[in-house]
């Protein structure tokens, strides 16, 4: 073993020293030569010792090329690399050589490599031990049992950096025995070992006990434990925000936990200034909403205000502001901050030229805050989405998906807003002129809130019938007419659902008036609300829908729709096309009726169970 105190204990790469004059020119020439050798796939006639020596060079590129060459040489270089790892001199250059040799051994992935690095995990020098422990972790899959034994031993190291490296290695082993070691250290609850074990176990499967220990350790009496816990909490970042926020809410005096949250927030704010993937940006924005303090909310408002540059991010940030303002965080508890958020959302809601999706997202957040402007705007926008034909071919697929998602979020927001929205929604379902989208959202919400006053109006949505002449074709139905050749002039065959329903039911008032989605949501709502009146209405609706579906089923099975095709049609291919269209139309109507019946039957069961 080497002597003590000549290495500095460092956990990261050794800092580069400036290289001046001739030394700089020599370094550049050597780097170019080594790079050229690497590119041509040869070592330029140099032996392993040549590259081992350069593992300690101050230039990153020289060291990188040397490592690559030694790995390429494999068995020819193994002995020289092992010797370098075991006998590196006690200087900064020696430490770089030691770390480079360790990296080469890890990349070689041999049992001899593992045994070499494992032999130095009890070295007197902390920097050597740290390098050896990390290397054992990198080689752990070569022999899991042996690696777990060495890493377990390293968990008792007096240096926190070494303990952290050992816990990380045990976690990355993903090995039952290694996980058991971490659990044992956590159960003991002593020192930095327990804090690093808790961090490793939380990263494995987010177990609550590990999170709780880390949270409590942030306020531990021992300074090293507090430091270790804070470093791990900050390193976990947004993955640890939820437990931190909950703990702070449950323990108002948790100053250390709040300090850790502030550090995480500052890191997230810095991260937002960089180029991020959408998934990562999404995670950061959501985390800021959960942190919900003044700085986080200021950044979220800034993102919303830039709606014209990134609408998707602005929509997300508006939702995050709503999350913050209804939480236990300062955005909800600090009166001034709460008022500022509300004013900002209202301003954006009515801002001329703002993107409608951003405004809807602001309305959703206002609605969750119990603000009547939010619910009024939301219902008006749901109605306007219908008038502009969401989902029609004129609207792009991406736009239609985005608006559909907002529609669903709007309904969820109405539900989460509580009883204050009930009067507005009752007006919606009372009005026979209300559009399908708004009716659907109102019925869903009234059912989720179990509003008994809504029962008769929901029943009307289910029971109202019209004659076939009042039925409109769905936008996905086949074309409305088909031209057929005859011996005389061409005949226009009507292929609308109205034609089929008229053939079956004449002018009787038997066809359900509302679209399938509205009827299904009304049935769902009546089932949730329950009670004698709801059960009666559901039974009536069941009879109405079965009385439509049964003759329709017979009509389709017997292919009675064929009588709609005039006998004078002369071309077989046209008659075949007409049969296919009418058959497809029958199938579609039956499918819709079947889905609604399924929901009604489910609702009947739920209403009966509720009673």
Would you give an account of this structure?
The protein is 69% helix and 2% strand. It has a two-stranded antiparallel sheet with strand order 1-4. A two-stranded antiparallel sheet has the order 2-3. The N and C termini lie far apart (80 Å). The relative contact order is 0.04. Helix 25 runs parallel beside helix 28 (516-529). Mean pLDDT is 87; it is low at 1-43 and 389-394. It contains 30 helices and four strands. The longest helix is centred in the C-terminal third of the chain and has 39 residues, at 572-610. The protein is an all-alpha fold and 611 residues long. A hairpin with a 6-residue loop joins strand 2 (481-484) and strand 3. It has helices at residues 21-39, 48-54, 60-73, 75-87, 92-108, 111-118, 126-138, 144-154, 160-173, 176-188, 191-205, 208-217, 223-236, 241-250, 255-272, 278-291, 294-305, 311-325, 330-333, 335-349, 356-368, 372-387, 397-416, 422-430, 436-448, 455-463, 497-505, 516-529, 532-557, 572-610; strands at residues 465-466, 481-484, 491-494, 511-512.
């Amino acid at each position: 073993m080497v002597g003590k105190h000549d290495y500095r204990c460092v956990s990261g790469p050794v800092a580069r020293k400036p290289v001046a004059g001739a030394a700089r020119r020599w370094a550049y020439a050597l780097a170019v030569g080594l790079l050229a050798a690497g590119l041509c796939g040869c070592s330029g006639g140099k032996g392993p010792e040549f590259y081992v020596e350069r593992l300690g060079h101050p230039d990153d590129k020289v060291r990188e090329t040397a490592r690559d060459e030694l790995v390429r040489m494999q068995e020819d270089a193994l002995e020289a690399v092992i010797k370098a790892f075991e006998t590196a001199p006690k200087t900064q250059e020696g430490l770089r050589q030691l770390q480079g040799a360790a990296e080469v051994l890890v990349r070689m992935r041999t049992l001899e490599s593992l045994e070499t690095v494992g032999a130095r995990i009890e070295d007197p020098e902390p920097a050597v031990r740290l390098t050896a422990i990390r290397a054992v972790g990198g080689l752990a899959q070569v022999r899991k049992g042996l690696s777990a034994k060495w890493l377990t031993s390293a968990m008792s190291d007096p240096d926190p950096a070494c303990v952290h490296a050992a816990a990380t290695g045990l976690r990355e082993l993903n090995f039952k025995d290694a996980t058991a070691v971490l659990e044992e250290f956590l159960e003991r609850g002593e020192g930095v070992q327990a804090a690093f074990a808790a961090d490793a176990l939380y990263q494995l499967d987010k177990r609550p006990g590990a999170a709780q220990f880390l949270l409590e350790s942030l306020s531990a009496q021992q300074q090293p434990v507090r430091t270790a816990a804070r470093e791990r909490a900050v390193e976990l970042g947004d993955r640890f925000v939820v437990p931190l926020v909950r703990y702070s809410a449950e323990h108002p005096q948790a100053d250390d936990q709040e300090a850790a949250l502030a550090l995480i927030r500052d890191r997230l704010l810095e991260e937002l200034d960089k180029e991020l993937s959408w998934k990562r940006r999404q995670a950061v924005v959501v985390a800021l909403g959960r942190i919900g303090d003044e700085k986080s909310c200021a950044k979220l408002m800034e993102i919303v205000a830039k709606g014209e540059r990134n609408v998707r991010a602005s929509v997300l940030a508006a939702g995050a502001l709503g999350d913050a303002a209804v939480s236990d965080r300062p955005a909800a508890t600090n009166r001034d901050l709460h008022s500022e958020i509300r004013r900002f959302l209202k301003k954006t809601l009515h801002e001329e030229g703002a993107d409608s999706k951003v405004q809807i997202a602001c309305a959703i957040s206002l609605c969750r805050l119990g603000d009547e402007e939010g619910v009024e705007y939301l219902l008006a926008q749901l109605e306007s989405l219908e008038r502009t034909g969401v989902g029609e071919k004129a609207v792009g697929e991406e736009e239609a998906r985005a608006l559909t998602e907002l529609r669903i979020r709007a309904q969820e927001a109405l539900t989460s807003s509580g009883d204050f929205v009930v009067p507005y929604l009752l007006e919606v379902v009372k009005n026979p002129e209300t559009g399908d989208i708004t009716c659907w959202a109102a019925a869903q919400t009234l059912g989720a809130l179990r509003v008994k006053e809504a029962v008769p109006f929901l029943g009307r949505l289910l029971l109202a019938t019209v004659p076939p002449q009042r039925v409109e074709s769905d936008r996905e139905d086949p074309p409305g007419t088909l031209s057929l050749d005859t011996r005389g002039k061409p005949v226009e065959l009507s292929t609308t659902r109205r034609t089929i329903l008229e053939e079956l039911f004449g002018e009787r008032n038997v066809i359900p008036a509302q679209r399938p989605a509205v009827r299904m949501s009304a049935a769902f709502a009546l089932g949730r609300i329950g009670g004698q009146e709801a059960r009666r209405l559901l039974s009536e609706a069941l009879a109405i829908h079965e009385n439509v579906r049964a003759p329709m089923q017979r009509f389709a099975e017997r292919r009675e729709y064929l009588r709609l095709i005039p006998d004078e049609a002369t071309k077989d291919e046209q008659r075949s096309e007409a049969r296919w269209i009418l058959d497809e139309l029958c199938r579609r109507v039956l499918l819709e009726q079947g889905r609604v019946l399924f929901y009604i039957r489910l609702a009947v069961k739920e209403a009966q169970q509720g009673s």
